[in-house]
Amino acid sequence: MTKLCDFRTEKIQDAGATSKAADEQWKDARAARRHIKGLLERMAPGRIRCMYCLDNQGTDIDHFEPKSRTPLRTFCWDNHLLACSHCNSNEKRHLFPCDPETGACLLIDPTVDDPADHLKLLPRTGELKCRTPKGRHSIEVFGLNRDELRKGRADACEMFISGLIRWHDQVQLGKIDAATRTAVRLYRADFPEVLRSLESLAGTPLASVLEDRHFPEALTAWAAIRHQRGWIPSMRTGLGAPLSPHP
To answer: What's the N-to-C CA distance of the chain in angstroms?
Structure first.
């Protein structure tokens, strides 16, 4: 893939590094696009979800920094993200806001930025609040608070809460295989940022306001294994490290 991309970049350079040359080479590079998309799909969250909304299937290769802005980054690996057609064509398009003084990009780049540093999720409502200017611009450009996403995150919150309680019950009963399957389903679920947001509430008073008295204990046990042991179930095989109700 690297050789294919380098070859196409040289072609763009030889043609004057114009936006037109970048578009022509990108359209003609079927083999390179196939390799890029295959790798992005393997890296995508959940069930090959869009790396912006995390809701729809990722079908497009998006250039985080548009080809028209930097033609020579058209085949740059770290400029490629997997996006759904809606986010790519209806929301982000060619938008790329930058700081007028420094020229720094004002969008969250998931290849280098932690979205949690810039966005705060309200699990019950599914709404995202901005922590920084990057967060504010990202919400606007990617349409991250459109109705279907807010409702989807709110529904996901309910699913994750009931799923974590079920997982904890299975662990306590010694049903390790069942608990592992439940954990894998939780990791594969859409809107994984909702699960991460819930994990951040472990051990805090806020956990008790989300559900009945069983949830805080389940969340604490999950977070202990997830963070202290670094346990992550395999998405392909469904196998993970042994689970225990105690950290």
So the answer is: 42
Q: Which residue has the tokens 């346990």?
A: 231
pTM: 0.82
Q: How many CA atoms lie within 13 A of 243 on its CB side?
A: 27
Q: What is the pLDDT of residue 174?
A: 95
Contact 66/73 with Cβ under 8 angstroms?
A: no
DSSP string, 207-227: GGGTSSTHHHHHHHHHHIIII
Contact at 8 Å (CB) between 52 and 91?
yes
pLDDT recorded at residue 227: 67
- In the block, tokens 């204990």 appear at 217
* Spatial CA neighbour of 11 closest among 113, 1, 24, 33: 24
> In this structure, what token pair is assigned to residue 80?
């490629």
